[in-house]
Amino acid sequence: MTPHPAPAGSPVLTVGFDLDMTLIDSRPGIRACYLALAERTGTYIDADLAVTRLGPPLADELVNWFPAERVPAVADLYREMYPSYAVAATPAMAGARESLEAVRAAGGRTMVVTAKYEPNAKLHLAHLGLEPDVVVGGLWAEQKAEALREHGAGVYVGDHVGDVRGARTAGALSVAVATGPCDAGELRAAGADVVLDDLSAFPGWLAGYRGAPGAAPRA
Description:
six-stranded parallel sheet, globular
């Protein structure tokens, strides 16, 4: 995945995307990895429940199943096992590829900002042939604003209220997709500027946003 630098001298539309349940449906792969982790550790994990609340950092989920003092070591084990169980089992979300292409066709740049361990996030993207210009992992909720600001993202697309908070903290337009654990009402209540059913609607929304009078990239 080769980063594409922003052209110098003029503002460029940069759109950030969350990963899990925004660009990829990671539930099948994460479920498989949790089941394998439970078998490896001898600890019960309700994998079906765990995949209904994706978004927050891994440790936030593991603490429901393991004593707090074991969580760092178990998290390392999970991340080590993850490529073998989760990557091939995970499809792209409807509209993911088209959304990245729509930004690029508009002369913009794309980035992925996710709480997921960055090397595993990059494995997902490479497996699916999705090629954002920038990938930043290990950031959750308001922390995502660090990367969004650094790269001048004017729009951030995500499925969780934490993504909405990250966008707002960065001063970016929050575009939410109701494809994750948070429904449209929760996303609006959290302050999302735009709520879409899924990413299939994003290219059309982007065309309207770019064509609106006075529209300009947020930097």
